[in-house]
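ingest -> fold -> write
write: protein_1
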Amino acid sequence: DYPDEGSRIRYRGKWTPGDIKSGAGGYPAHASWPQNPMYAFEVNQSTKLVAVVSQRDVRWQTLSAAGYENGVGFVVMKLSTQSRAKKFSMKELAGMSRTYASDRCCAGMMSLEPGRYTIVPSTYDPTKTMEPFILEINTDKQVQFEQEGDDIPDLDEAAEGDDDDDDDGGGEVDFEEAFAMSTAGDAEPEEPGREISHLWSQA
């Protein structure tokens, strides 16, 4: 069960190659990562967040058990005033999915302190074709999301801040270690709702 006083929202989006704000930029090691869809929100008190990103179900399209060619996952980044993260920085990383899973869905749980954040779902590798996804976010306290769920406003209209911090403060990052990808069936269940319920029971 989800806390009555919390927030719950679902976004239906697309990773669209070549789009600079709802693109298919891949995981944070790729220079194109800032092109991925981003969903900003504000936290006013210490909050537990559980999220799951799901990609298209391809099991009916293939006889192979390993039918997913690309992994999916997400990161949560701290923001100052802007609505999008201009680049990846370990210093601004607030949380992430448990892995990047080559599976139907991938989930993660984290605790967030008051502040502004954006959650960035992505595939592991940049895609060459448009791929749909669903991102579901649950919190145990009320948070303010900048975009409404399901019917997402045009991301080109989202405001960008003028802040530009060139110092990521994180030194060298071993992306392969920090953002490992699991293969289908390693750890992620097939049902996003069941996964979120399971994580809430651990919170």
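write: protein_2
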Amino acid sequence: SPQCNTSTQRAPASNYSFYNMCTIDAHKEAWKLHGQYLRALMPYSTMSKYRLLGTGHSGTVWTTQQYQTVFKVFTHKRFEDVSREIVVSQYVQSILPKRVIGYTTCHLYNKQVCVAQMDLCTGVDLHDFRVRNMGVTRRLALRWIKELGTTLHILHSQNIYHNDVKAENIFICMSALKTEVQAKLIDFEFTSTTTPNLPTITS
């Protein structure tokens, strides 16, 4: 889950996550480092077109309302590790588009910086959902366990193992009116697989 600096001045909320908002200062600092790569995707875009969702050990995560897209800029991981993660994430997204949030496309710059693209999804991770709602109802818990169980069963049938299922890697997607909620699996950094035509990954 992306971590943001704390401050009394915050950027406008993103509809990717209701609760993970980064400070304006963090937004400006991250843009200085990674703005050039995002501008390469949309040449006429400016900092105001993007919103920083968070920063992590491997890079930064951004969203843009114009294209309903999320971008993850990888800068602090080995190129080989990023490549394997992206290949597996794209494959999982292709076979389970309604059950996971994986990368749809990626853009590589000089084998040093990679920008991965994901679909924008309204919601929050399970950890924050529990905190904000002071728990989870039995009905929702049973429903999400069934959804995640089915997702993992399908992945295992393809010899793909997530290896990092936790509250922070379960994203609760909400409909526009917040009347429908669905649990989706995210973050395939530690995935292992023996599926043919996919690179072998171990945590």
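write: annotation protein_2
The chain has four helices and eleven strands.
Helices lie at 24-41, 79-95, 126-133, 138-157.
pipeline exit 0
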